[in-house]
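Annotated sample (chain length 186).
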Amino acid sequence: MPEQEKKSKISASRKLMLKSLMVAKAKEELEQELIDKEEEKQRYLDEKVPALQTSGMSFAELQELCQELHAKIDVVDEERYDIEAKVLHNTREIKDLNIKVLDLRGKFKRPNLRRVRVSADAILRSLLGSKHKVSLDLRANLKSVKKEDTEKEKTVEVSDWRKNVEAMSGMEGRKKMFDAAKGPTQ
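Output written by the structure step:
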């Protein structure tokens, strides 16, 4: 029976520390890459575009220089436009080919999703970030009801309805109803 190799388990704090170190190193490398690109761009521009010496030139020479620069700018703009058109054409072609590949594979199979229980506070925290200070304790916002109040409402005068009908019948009953509706205004 061969012995199984034991995998070393790293604690969560160690993983977090390693991850933060990797992110810091990647950030440094990215900054260095940006600096290198900027230096290379400056070297290329210094090589291809020498500084203009306009001092001591006559007006006619300056006009000729401007015409030469405009001609160069036109050539560069044409090249840029051609390259942009090629890039746009290639991106459309890549998009179409990706669609064809997906069609040939068949329907995309959706992965099984797991249920995740998240509280309302966690959702608000993720949406609003650190601005979230209101807690959604729904039970705290409910109105408190005392039991005695509900019992008083339930104990409505229950008497014999026949006596009430006999008392209200005839002209005297109608006069009582009219006086009761009018209220104690006198």
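Annotation: The radius of gyration is 43 Å.
Annotation: The mean pLDDT is 79.
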